[in-house]
Design goal:
Layout lengths: L2 E2 L9 E5 L6 E5 L1 E4 L2 H5 L4 E9 L9 H14 L5 E7 L11 E3 L26 E2 L2 H9 L10 H13 L35 E7 L17 H12 L8 E7 L4 E6 L2 E3 L3 H8 L8 E2 L5 H17 L2 E3 L1 E4 L9 E4 L2 E2 L8 E17 L5 E16 L5 E2 L4 E6 L2
Parallel strand pairs: 1-4, 5-6, 5-9, 7-8, 9-10, 10-13
Antiparallel strand pairs: 2-3, 4-21, 6-7, 11-12, 14-18, 14-20, 15-19, 16-17, 16-21, 18-19
């Protein structure tokens, strides 16, 4: 019996098998084999929204050249990653509304690099709001405008990210476009679709030589842990699952006098670092006075993205041809699965469009609802233990009518 790849033109192919010299011939329809990629299990790009929160106070002037150099390398290196990224900037003091994000153009269009349709084409960033060149984005990060307000990184970041994540969401109980906390024009036109995504990993990078005013008003390391807990809850609420939030504070690990940290002063940054060291948010803390801090952050984000992608739960396999249902054989990691609603597979027909990813497996074994990777074709639903998690490999064999 012949096994055929999807890429072959075999719609009407019949394999003839002789049963003897001049004897009768038996004709069998070709059997099609869906490999892991063809069965809708192509490797998804890691989906991440990175929000960079630079300290724009005057005390950062001395450190700015170092930060700019590190940031240029950090942003430029992202293009070499298989990441569907969006990078935004907000500021610790007097932030402006996020209206532009740096995107990976490979994933911000109608098709993907392999020529297949982009399953997220409906939510790409509009061209007026999308930057594709790191050189155009960097000045947004390193600009200083520190007039007249305290360091309120948590408040300003949460408000700005919320505003451009939930633009079109009427079910959150939040205003569609609320910039009142930011002190800027609340009637600024909304961007649709939103610039940041509720179903992407949210990585917040705070880059500062100061302390967070609402948590540590005296900048001396004596903290309000109640405030830390409150802000952590607000950040977790920005995503469909708390497991999709990471916090990377790059702050001073102690107080430094003038010239002591990248040529300038620094307050102790425990109002940031304890957010992760005390377990309020997952992530990792770094010392801004360490020249390699930003490159270390990139490594941490990459590790977290790998873990998140390997936790995807797939409940559907999509094949390109209508099958003879009785001929379908479904395998998971080489083991044949039974047909049925309990820990088996069910053919749902088609053509129809589904999100093959239906959830994320949390660290405690719970499946958190989450959808990704829309595909159109003939659909096989996987139930219970038959579902694919992370790097599980599916295989489907079937005959066509």
């Amino acid at each position: 019996m012949k096994h055929l790849k999807f890429g072959m033109t075999a719609a009407a192919l019949i394999s003839a098998m002789a049963l003897g010299g001049c004897g009768k011939q038996e004709y069998r329809k070709a059997e099609f084999a869906a490999t892991s990629q063809e069965a809708g299990a192509r490797q998804l790009p890691a989906k991440v929204d990175i929000v960079i929160v630079p300290d724009n106070s005057g005390s950062m002037n001395a450190a700015l050249a170092t930060v700019e150099s590190q940031m240029a390398g950090f942003v430029s290196s992202l293009r070499s990653k298989y990441w569907d990224f969006r990078i935004a900037k907000t500021a610790i003091i007097n932030p402006s509304p996020i209206q532009k994000v740096l995107v990976n153009p490979d994933f911000n269009g109608a098709t993907l690099p392999d020529g297949t349709p982009n399953p997220n084409a409906a939510t790409v960033v509009p061209s007026a709001n999308a930057l594709t060149d790191a050189g155009s984005f960097l000045p947004l990060v390193t600009s200083l405008d520190a007039t007249g307000a305290p360091d309120l990184a948590y408040q300003n970041t949460e408000a700005n990210v919320r505003a451009v994540t939930f633009t079109s969401d009427g079910g959150t109980g939040w205003p569609t476009k609320d910039y009142s906390v930011l002190g800027v024009n609340p009637t600024l036109p909304a961007v649709s679709p939103p610039l940041l995504r509720k179903d992407a990993l949210l990585a917040v990078i705070v880059l500062t030589n100061g302390a967070e005013y609402s948590v540590d008003p005296n900048h001396n390391g004596y903290l309000s842990t109640t405030q830390l807990s409150t802000w952590a809850a607000k950040f977790k609420a920005l995503r469909v699952s708390p497991s999709l939030v990471r916090f990377y504070p790059i702050a001073a690990n102690s107080a430094y006098a003038a010239g002591g940290c990248l040529g300038g002063p620094a307050y102790i940054g425990t109002s940031y670092t304890r957010m992760v060291t005390d377990g309020y948010l997952p992530g990792k803390a770094f010392n801004i006075c360490d020249f390699s801090a930003l490159s270390n952050v990139l490594t941490s984000i990459e590790n977290d993205l790998t873990i998140t992608r390997e936790s995807y739960v797939r409940s559907y396999i999509v094949i390109p041809h209508e099958p003879i249902v009785s001929s379908i054989r479904v395998y998971k990691n080489g083991v044949q699965l039974s047909q049925g609603e309990t820990n088996g597979w069910v053919y749902e027909g088609g053509p129809k469009t589904v999100s093959t990813v239906s959830g994320i497996l949390s660290s405690n074994g719970q499946i958190i609802p989450f959808t990704a990777d829309q595909q159109t074709g003939y659909v096989i639903r996987l139930n219970g233990s038959a579902r694919l998690i992370g790097n599980d490999v599916p295989d489907v064999q079937y005959q066509r009518p």
